[in-house]
Specification:
By secondary structure, this protein is mostly helical. About 45% of the residues lie in helices and about 10% in strands. The chain has a three-stranded parallel β-sheet with strand order 1-2-3, with no helix packed on it. It is globular.
Length: about 210
Amino acid sequence: MSALAAKFRDHVGGTSGPLFGLFFDQLSRALGNETTADIPALAAASTNALATISRIGGAQIGDSPLLDALAPAADTLTAADGERTAALTAAARAALNGAATTADLRSRAHPGLGVEVLVTVGSPLGVPGAVFDMLDPAPDTSGNGTRSPCIRHWANIAEAGDLVALPRRLGDRFPVDSHHEAHMSTVDFHTVDTYLASGLSASALAPHCDTL
């Protein structure tokens, strides 16, 4: 996790790189020498990351999609007392709902604001029987998920062998603008490095760069 934190801090541009670096740094501190994190450790890391990012960035909940997602996820992990997979699924759902809800509110209050380009990588949003069926708002009667009106462009990237990113074509379930399927010779399923190493992450943004 410390190596992942360093990669975000040193190699990912904009403000998101350092902020995600702070998050993974807190996770690294919570893990210590362990290779896997239990739910209390993840809860502590998320809570500490929330406070650190808010303090350093000078933002509060409602100001930043990152905080809007991280706060409910941290609360959910802190309150979790069940099985690990269920706790992580609930936290992921809380993060998605938190970011979507507050982004929606900001978009209605300030029509000129919004997410210009959303790029999802290895997204589990479409996984049936888990994340997809637990979304709020729920999928419609046709089995389609909704898209926040504040998202102007949405590109999805999925590695062909990523077992988490199922189904890979989010456009079969969501109004996604474009799809990019990665094919990599050596894949450690669903790792951040796998996706960061793919040029598709940059090419997904390319058609929209003139609007950023």
